[in-house]
Each structure stands twice: as structure tokens, then as C-alpha cells.
Design a protein that fits this description.
It is a single chain. By secondary structure, this protein is α+β, with helices and mostly antiparallel strands. The protein is 34% helix and 24% strand. The protein has 3 domains: 55 residues, DNA polymerase, domain 1 (Orthogonal Bundle), CATH 1.10.150; 274 residues, Aldolase class I (TIM Barrel, Alpha-Beta Barrel); 225 residues, 4-Layer Sandwich (Phosphatase 2c, domain 1), CATH 3.60.40. The chain has 17 helices and 26 strands. The strands form 5 sheets. It has a 10-stranded mixed beta sheet with strand order 1-2-3-4-7-8-9-10-11-12, with helices on one face. Strands 13-16-26-25-22-23 form a 6-stranded antiparallel beta sheet. The protein starts with 7 loop residues before the first helix and ends with a strand. About 4% of the residues have low confidence.
Length: 587
């Protein structure tokens, strides 16, 4: 027998049944999981008779690593099991620690059309020793502690339900692997009866649902499971899960070009999840050579995101860059050959507590050379004007940037940015002329262009751009406010500026004048990341408070951004709050 095939409780019961003490199980577990000792003969506090019994009846073995495809931030492992079947798992180095994506079966019977792992039909379920063994052998090979686990690799976890239950027990037990409940995520394509059963367990771990379509017509075509359990069945099961656990559910939604990425799909999805304790995670599809499916472009993804936000749906776009291997929904393949790395990028916008509409807009896009553009715009002029101006600025910048084969040299990037900003300014002015209800139309705009060779910031208005280095934020941009001008001219003290009644009066914004000049800042590339935000954040939180959250290693980047927004809302939430953050990796 393999001792990794036992939970602590199961090992206690087994040893008691054969005449040993319950506490002996804890002794053995401490040697294996805490002291990393795998030789029974060296477990010095065990009796000789128990050591002999263990040597005769047990082994301590994990799956065999037969191939490692190493990237800078992502490693893919090919493991061989005792019966020569093979599985994969993926180790990802995030800014919050190491995360391991593990497989739950050899093959998969769910047959999702976009999923690489479904090409191999299910052979069998993985045993507890094979589930746990993935964590043990990868942690040992990489010489790292695994901080979080996602069961999203090959197989459908809820089709191996009993072993997944036992796996959760081992992973979250502080005497064994000891990963916190909120750092463990189980993903299912929607086995409805098992969602109810999982809810009743109240394990405290995270649940993610691979929905990927807003209606049955589309989901029937791309996910065979929908023939058995319709979307309505899944949503009822999730309602039960939330009522039972009060835990937020992640709705995974892969963006497939021309299939599930239309504006109508976004509206349908919004109607499904609006008002529920759920958030939508939009995932750009990782194309493979085996399928005809294509990834939605960044402009389409941003439009989809905007519609969900306008319908008050909590939504994120996950973008992970770097390394030369990647993993998403069973797709494990080469991802990048860049000599520089964007490790993780994330953005979120929130209407705040006071305003009924969100006039901010935000995006992070790539061009064909894998260079990045990050943009935050804070609209003004009311609901029918501010939303238009900020969206126009962000959409035009992202569309034009994503079409570029490369931004070129630093000088060419400056020219490109200034020309686009001039064009956007003209469009905003023209819109204001043609629409009588768009009085006061305008927007701030702060952006960053990220390439291997340089880092450029551009700014108009009072949204802010920072660089992040050695756990400190350094503001790059200057606010174009009346108070800041008075401050720079020595006509106002800093303490007086904070209380000035006109501290938010802008002296420069897109749409405010026929001639507009964007400030350009050339920044050293040797930083750990960039951070952009609207004044809805900086008016509520100090730079020191933002730094404290960014430096919290227990939180993922998404959680850090969400915590900032929550804190800003707790302090009043007087304005829309928008944040875009990019973390860089090493060479």
C-alpha cells in the first residue's frame, strides 16, 4: 500500500485496527509532510515493531517525472503512473507564490470542443496517492512550497468526486500539505448533482464553473455536458451552493471568436449572473493546432467586458504572460519566447458607492509583437457624456495599438501616441457638437506602453501612473489640476491643497480644448511593474495604503486590486474607481 493513499483519519483508523495507537498516524504524517523524511527506518520516534510493520506493508512513492518543459515562470510536468499511464500538471510562479494545476483523471469524457485534454478519452480516475503525489513530486523537483492548488488539469474533478473529497482533506490539513482553504479551487464543467453534494460538504474551498456560453444553443455546440445538464440546471445548483456556503462562485468564460463573444452574448450572460454572488472570469482562448477555434481579439474582449460592467456584473479579464509553456482548460503548450516577461496583468473598474453609473474605462492590450498598452480613462460630463468620452479614448487606443505589428522605437512610439491622442480629441469635440446632451464631455487619459526596450507613460488630466519597484510606488505622472498648478507655483501648501474646495478642477482633459498636449514620460525599464488608476482611488487611499495592499503576499493580484476598491468604497466611494496593474518577471 502507498501511504499517500490515506487521509490522516483513515491512517489513524487503520493503525488502531491493526493494534497500534492513534497518535502513531500523526507521527508518521509529520515525518512525511513536515520533515520530508521518506525512509521509515529514519523515523526515530516510532517503535521498532511499527517501523517493521510499515516496511512490510507500506511504500512512500509518488508519480515519476519523465519530462519537464521549463519556462521562466511556468513549468509543465509529464508524470508517469504505476500502470504507465501519463498525466500532466503545471507549476506557475505568480507574484503571490507558487500555484500548481493538477489533473484529476487519466483522460476526460466531457468532450469540450475547445479543450486539449478531452482528445484523450477517460481511462480511469486518479487515486488519492496520484492526486497528492503531483504536489509532492513537483514541490520536491522544483524545491519550492506550493502555495495554492487548482484542480483544472486533465479530467473532470466531479467525475472523480470521492477522491477529490479526500484530496481536499489532505491538502487543507495543517498536519499534511497545509494549504489554506481559500487557496484551493475545484473546477467543474457542471455536473449538477455533484454541485449539490459539494455544497453540502461545506469544505470552504473555492468553486469554479466552466460555463463558456450564455445560452443552451451555444453551450450545446461546444460542451457535451450541456446535453445532460442545461444552463438553467447549473444556475439553480449554483444558487443552492451559494445559499448553503455563502461562498462566491467563479464563472469561467473562454472567449471564442465568432462563437460566444458577441454583444448579445454579453447581455445574456449579464442577465444570468447579475445580482448573484458570482464573478465572471473572461479567459482569452489559447489556440492549439488541433482545433479550428480562434481567440477573440482584445478589442472584442474589452467590449464584452464593458457590457458586463455596465450591467453591474463583477467581471475580470485574466491575462498571464511569460514563460514558454502555458496551461488553461487543459491546453498545455508553448506560449512565449520573449527575453522580457510580463508576469501578470489585471484591471478592474467599479462605480463606487455614490454614483449610479461608471464613467471610467480601462484596458490592457497586446499588439502583434507582444508589446503592451495599458490605459485608464476617467470620463466627465455626466452619464451620457463621460462614459462616451472615456470609452471612445480607450477603445480607439486599444484598437489601433492591437493592429500594430510593432510600436517601433521609443521615438516612433511617442509620435504614434501623440497623433492618436490628437485624433481622439477631435472625435470627442465632434461628438459634443453633434449631441446636445453631451455638454461638458471630456475624459482624462493615462497610459503606459511596455516593450522590452523602453517604458513610456502618457498623461492628460488627474488619473495617475506609477512604477512599482522594491515594494514601493513612485508616481510618474503629474496631475493637471488647478490645485497642483498652484502647488507647483508655491501659491499653496500641501496641507492646504488636500483641503482645497477646487482640488478636483481640471485644467487639461481630452475634449476640453481644440489643441491638447499629452505629457510623455520616459521611464527606466528596470522596475517591478506599473500601476495606473483613476482619482477615485487616490482620493480615498494614500500611496502608503496602496503599497501595503500590493505587498501583501497572501493575496493574488486580483484580490489586491479588489481589496483596494473595497477600501476606497469603505471610505466613501465618492467616485468611480479604476485600477490597472502589471507585474514584471525576471529574465
Amino acid at each position: 500500500m502507498n501511504i499517500y493513499d490515506f487521509t490522516l483519519n483513515e491512517l489513524e483508523n487503520y493503525l488502531v485496527d491493526v493494534g497500534y495507537k492513534k497518535f502513531n498516524a500523526t507521527q508518521i504524517i509529520e515525518w512525511m509532510y513536515d520533515k520530508k523524511e521518506y525512509d521509515f527506518n529514519k523515523m526515530s520516534n516510532l517503535s521498532k515493531s511499527l517501523i517493521a510493520f510499515l516496511n512490510e506493508n507500506f511504500v512512500i512513492e509518488t508519480p515519476k517525472i519523465i519530462q519537464v518543459e521549463k519556462g521562466n515562470l511556468v513549468n509543465k510536468y509529464l508524470l508517469e503512473l504505476e500502470d504507465n499511464n501519463k498525466i500532466e500538471c503545471v507549476l506557475m510562479n505568480h507574484d503571490y507564490g507558487y500555484s500548481l494545476c493538477v489533473s484529476s483523471q487519466v483522460g476526460c469524457n466531457m468532450g469540450c470542443s475547445f479543450c486539449e485534454s478531452g482528445r484523450l478519452k477517460k481511462v480511469r480516475d486518479l487515486s488519492l496517492k496520484e492526486l497528492v503525489g503531483q504536489i509532492i513530486c513537483v514541490s520536491k523537483e522544483a524545491n519550492v512550497r506550493i502555495d495554492s492548488v487548482v484542480v483544472m488539469g486533465i479530467g473532470e474533478p466531479f467525475d472523480n468526486f470521492n477522491n477529490i473529497k479526500r484530496f481536499i482533506e489532505v491538502v487543507t490539513n495543517n498536519k499534511m500539505i497545509g494549504i489554506g482553504q481559500r487557496h484551493v479551487t475545484i473546477s467543474t464543467c457542471g455536473l449538477v448533482p455533484k454541485i449539490y453534494e459539494f455544497a453540502d460538504l461545506e469544505t470552504g474551498v473555492n468553486l469554479a464553473i466552466s460555463l463558456h456560453a450564455p445560452n443552451n444553443e451555444i453551450r450545446d455546440k461546444i460542451m457535451k455536458i450541456n446535453h445532460a445538464y442545461k444552463i438553467e440546471d447549473v444556475m439553480r445548483a449554483l444558487d443552492y451552493y451559494i445559499s448553503k456556503t455563502n461562498r462566491r462562485v467563479t464563472i469561467e468564460y473562454i472567449m471564442l471568436a465568432g462563437i460566444n463573444d458577441s454583444d448579445e452574448c454579453a447581455k445574456e450572460l449579464a442577465s444570468l449572473v447579475k445580482g448573484k454572488l458570482m464573478y465572471v472570469n473572461l479567459i482569452p482562448y489559447n489556440e492549439t493546432t488541433h482545433f479550428e477555434l480562434k481567440r477573440s481579439n482584445d478589442f472584442k474582449i474589452k467590449s464584452f467586458y464593458d457590457i458586463l460592467k455596465m450591467n453591474n456584473v463583477n467581471v475580470t479579464i485574466r491575462k498571464e504572460f511569460g514563460g514558454n509553456v502555458s496551461a488553461a482548460c487543459g491546453q498545455l503548450r508553448a506560449n512565449s519566447e520573449r527575453s522580457w516577461k510580463v508576469m501578470k496583468a489585471y484591471y478592474q473598474t467599479d462605480p463606487g458607492k455614490v454614483r449610479s453609473h461608471n464613467e471610467d474605462s480601462v484596458t490592457i492590450v497586446e499588439n502583434q509583437a507582444n508589446e503592451q498598452l495599458v490605459v485608464v480613462a476617467d470620463g466627465m460630463g455626466g452619464h451620457k457624456a463621460g462614459e462616451v468620452a472615456s470609452s471612445l479614448a480607450v477603445n480607439e487606443l486599444s484598437k489601433r495599438f492591437s493592429e500594430l505589428s510593432s510600436i517601433g522605437s521609443k521615438e516612433e512610439a511617442v509620435v504614434w501616441l501623440k497623433e492618436i491622442i490628437d485624433e481622439i480629441n477631435v472625435k470627442i469635440l465632434k461628438y459634443a457638437e453633434e449631441h446636445v446632451d453631451a455638454s461638458g464631455l471630456g475624459t482624462t487619459c493615462v497610459c503606459t506602453i511596455i516593450t522590452p526596450e523602453f517604458l513610456l507613460f502618457g498623461n492628460i488630466g488627474d488619473s495617475s501612473g506609477f512604477v512599482y519597484k522594491n515594494e514601493k510606488l513612485y508616481k510618474v505622472t503629474k496631475d493637471h489640476t488647478l490645485v497642483n498648478i498652484l502647488l507647483e507655483n508655491g501659491e499653496l501648501t500641501e496641507s492646504a491643497a488636500k483641503l482645497h474646495p477646487q482640488k478636483n478642477v481640471l485644467m487639461k482633459a481630452l475634449g476640453a480644448a481644440e489643441q491638447i498636449e499629452m505629457d510623455i514620460f520616459d521611464v527606466e525599464r528596470d522596475v517591478d511593474g506599473v500601476f495606473l488608476c483613476s482619482d477615485g482611488l487616490t482620493n480615498m487611499l494614500t500611496v502608503e495604503q496602496i503599497e501595503k495592499i500590493l505587498n501583501d503576499k497572501d493575496l493574488e493580484l486580483e484580490e489586491q486590486v479588489g481589496k483596494m476598491i473595497m477600501k476606497a468604497n469603505m471610505r466613501g466611494g465618492n467616485d468611480n474607481i479604476t485600477i490597472a496593474c502589471v507585474r514584471f518577471g525576471g529574465e
